[in-house]
Amino acid sequence: MSAKRTVISGGLIISMDPELGDVTGGAVLIENDRIVQVARSADELAGVDAERIDATDDPARIRTASGGDPSPGGSSTPLAVR
């Protein structure tokens, strides 16, 4: 079974990585329900075969199943793209 891949771009990424820092207009690659890559721009993920979502088009579309914003870690943070 292949992974469901989604690239969400155009949002504010609040990163715990001190090298990356917080990124405005960055992009994240999500495979199934896990964030697997964070990029400073969507161009860095241009070659990835994935559904593309621009967070600036409809920011309310991107929420976790619990109603919050997507975030890595924790016990389980399922992502819902409406």
From TrEMBL:
Stored Gene3D superfamilies: Urease, subunit C, domain 1 (2.30.40.10)
The protein, known as: Amidohydrolase
SUPFAM superfamilies listed in its UniProt record: Composite domain of metallo-dependent hydrolases
Ranges of Basic and acidic residues composition bias in the record: 52-61
Alphabetical list of InterPro entries matching this protein: Metal-dep_hydrolase_composite (IPR011059)
Source organism of the structure: Streptosporangium jomthongense
Comp. bias regions, Low complexity: 66-76
Record region (Disordered): 52-82
